Amino acid sequence: MQRTYKTGPYDARQSRGMSTPPTDAVRFDTKIAVLLRDDLEPWQRLNVTAFLVSGLGATLPEVVGEPYEDADGVGYLPMFRQPVLVFEGAKETLKAAHARALGRALPRAVFTADLFTTGNDRDNRAAVRAVPTAELDLVGLSVYGPRNAVDKVLKGARMHP
User: Fold this and answer.
1) Is the pLDDT of residue 70 over 70?
2) Helix/strand/coil percent split, the chain, to 5
3) Backbone angles phi, psi at 61, to 5 degrees
4) Do 82 and 155 contact (CB within 8 A), yes or no?
5) Going by C-beta distance under 8 Å and a sequence separation of 6 or more, which residues neighbour residue 116?
6) DSSP string covering 61-85, please?
7) pLDDT at 19
């Protein structure tokens, strides 16, 4: 499925048939995606997603846009320049996606089940470091790269409801 995103915020006037300023469709050559295991609690899904995308913004400056400013000149932090698409899948889907992301050497972040029991970054990194790659109990994966490559990594996953 190909998605086209509009630049600018959603305008409720559009859904009521009122006129809005025209926007140009933007088709990104890259994709930011998060894959979550489908058995997570809602709070876990949100927490895992936030942690996973933080690594992308911190290490890949090209995914971050310019700072925001409102009409009164109050500044806000920059955000990703493109949508973050969230998918879900079974444990096996996540494991296969992880292997494909590694095989394609795409920038990625992982969140394992062990991280729900730690309380800080040092312990999080130690928990991941203690487990061999093939044995990671993955509950989330973020990946960034060319749209085609990310689509192949996510094979078998479905859009998060």
Assistant:
1) yes
2) 40, 25, 35
3) -60, -25
4) no
5) 44, 139
6) GGGB-PPEE-TT--EE---BSS-EE
7) 45
pLDDT at position 148 over 50: yes
SS3 29: coil
Report pLDDT digits (tens) over 30-67.
999 999 999 999 999 999 999 999 988 889 988 999 99
Q: Which of 95, 96, 88 is nearest to 112 (CA)?
A: 95
Spatial distance between the Cα atoms of 144 and 161, rounded to a whole number of angstroms: 21
| Helices and strands in the chain: count of H runs, count of E runs | 5, 9
DSSP string of 86-125, one letter each residue: EEEE-HHHHHHHHHHHHHTT--EEEEEGGGGG--SHHHHH
Match 């913004």 to its residue by tokens. Answer: 57
pTM above 0.85, yes or no: no
pLDDT value, residue 28? 83
Residue-wise pLDDT tens digits, 128-140: 999 999 999 999 9
Question: How many residues appear in the chain?
Answer: 161
Tokens for 29, please give them: 């050559």
